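DM from R.C. (forwarded with permission)

"hey, sorry to bug you on a friday — could you get me a structure for this? deadline for the figure draft is monday and I only need the backbone to look sensible"
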Amino acid sequence: MQTELDFQQLLQALGDGVIVCDAAGAITFWNAAATRIFGFTESEAIGQSLDMIVPQRQRQRHWDGYYKTMATGQTRYGNDVLRVPAIHKDDKPLSIAFTVALLHAPNGEVSSIVALVRDETERWGEERKLRARLAQLETAQA
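My reply, with the result:
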């Protein structure tokens, strides 16, 4: 039996953030998990640039890659999970992991990019502490 999915409900119910941006980099979709991760409400995010969550020092690199992907229709990341810094509405630093997918217009051109985002700030902090402790133990052994 085929059941019709309510994709809007599905995207809002996901635990990971879903962010869709148009060719110019304006946010066109922002789900509830994106609000939980970044602090911006859907109404605050829609129509805005990704600069609201991309740290200043990362922006040039981000936009260079973004526009290249839009122009070529290809991303060098494929299905790779990307781990990058981000910023919360209250300016606290975040560590996020995400995958991207390209959406195409009927003429075949890339029309949008979708990012599926997970907040890994806590995990990243724990990993840093473990690496520091390991380095400390290795130094003590030497």
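R.C.: lifesaver. The mean pLDDT is 89.
me: no worries. DSSP finds five helices and five strands in the chain.
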